[in-house]
Specification:
Blueprint (H helix, E strand, L loop, with lengths): L1 H45 L2 E6 L7 H17 L4 E6 L7 H10 L4 E4 L5 H4 L10 H8 L2 H14 L2 E7 L4 E4 L6 H4 L3 E4 L3 H9 L3 E4 L5 H7 L4 E4 L1 H6 L8 E3 L7 E6 L1 H6 L2 H35 L3 E3 L3 H8 L7 H5 L3 H7 L3
Parallel strand pairs: 1-2, 1-3, 6-7, 9-11
Antiparallel strand pairs: 3-10, 4-10, 5-8, 5-9
Helix pairs in contact: 2-12
């Protein structure tokens, strides 16, 4: 009898234990649901991106203004605050080549650069490639522009989001240049780009590659005698302090390139990629409008700073450089692309 009573107690004890465990299990399940929801919310919060973009031009440049007043706020707004970008102009994160290397490594996310150490982009600096900005837009905003973006990615592994206007380049020096004879032996700073080096060699000068961030000092110390850049760059970087003459050559009307780390780009959804491309197109238009609005003002300011403007014999320049493209465009862009670009001149 005692044994039966003990057995009953044991059974009842087991039942209560099981019920208790079930209740605990139920409570734990609710707790896990709450924790899972909390973790999801935390994961969404951690999805916020704090990104860096870089450029070498001055803080007052239309490119810097465009990034800070258009691209960055629009991207933050349209991503509902998820994508935040801080822009570092004036070479704060390095020269053009340093920015490109940072993009490859992922230490810099976006770059707005004029040189990318790429055959595809370097060929945009060929002499007298574009008739004017309208011609340029017909090229970069059409099939050729898209094709060249893909060729750029194949060559470098870096994504190009898009292009942006870069005003015609002008020669500056401490002596007047009227013709080819005046160019002989002139030590002119150029970026480390074969097409530009070949152009100035064809013109009889002595091209010397120097990083843009070192250019002012190179002019000041006489390491080079001359340089070439748009009016805006000449003014905003105070080259008037170390150069006397501006030659209105319009020898090159290239574009600048907005690039992005490929791993970052692939992490964006297709919708986000389209959004970023659209925001960049709006930004590029804004930058170009700023640039063109201020171009005459830059000329006026340079004259006020004492620079003397010279109109050289451009036909001589054209004739001397007419075959430079043959050594670069076919390899960089493919056979026939240069000719297609020239067909779009009118």
């Amino acid at each position: 009898m005692f044994r039966k009573k003990k057995s009953s107690v044991v059974i009842v004890s087991i039942v209560f234990t099981v019920l208790a465990l079930i209740c605990v299990g139920c409570g734990g399940g609710q707790e896990q649901v709450d924790v899972g929801k909390e973790q999801k919310e935390q994961a969404e919060t951690k999805g916020d991106l704090e990104l860096r973009s870089a450029d070498v031009v001055a803080v007052t440049s239309p490119y810097t203004i465009g990034m800070n007043e258009k691209f960055i706020p629009l991207l933050k707004e349209r991503s509902n605050g998820r994508i935040k970008v801080t822009h570092y102009p004036a070479g704060q994160l390095g020269s053009d080549s340093g920015i490109v290397e940072g993009i490859k490594l992922g230490t810099i996310d976006f770059g707005l650069v004029g040189t990318v150490q790429s055959k595809v982009t370097e060929a945009f600096y060929l002499p007298f490639l574009f008739k004017d900005s309208e011609h340029m837009h017909r090229v970069i905003n059409g099939e050729i522009g898209e094709k060249l973006k893909e060729k750029f990615y194949e060559e470098t592994g870096i994504r190009m989001i898009g292009y942006v206007y870069f005003a015609p380049r002008m020669l500056t020096a401490n002596k007047p240049i009227h013709n080819l004879e005046d160019l002989k032996g002139l030590k002119i700073r150029v970026p480390q780009m074969p097409p530009m080096i070949a152009t100035w060699k064809a013109l009889g000068a002595s091209p010397t590659p120097v990083a843009f961030t070192e250019l002012f000092t190179a002019l000041q110390t006489g390491t080079v005698d001359a340089q070439e850049n748009p009016f805006e760059i000449i003014y905003n970087n105070s080259f008037y302090e170390v150069q006397k003459y501006v030659m209105v050559t319009n020898h090159s009307t290239p574009v600048r390139f907005f690039i992005v780390n490929d791993d970052l780009w692939q992490s964006f959804s297709k919708e986000e990629q389209k959004m970023i491309e659209e925001i960049w197109r709006q930004t590029a238009q804004y930058i170009e409008e700023l640039y063109k609005e201020n171009e005459q003002e830059y000329i006026k300011k340079l004259k006020e700073k004492g620079m003397i403007f010279i109109e050289p014999n451009i036909e001589e320049f054209r004739e001397a450089t007419k075959d430079v493209w043959k050594d670069f465009a076919p390899e960089a862009w493919g056979e026939g692309v240069y000719e297609e670009i020239q067909k779009l001149r009118d």
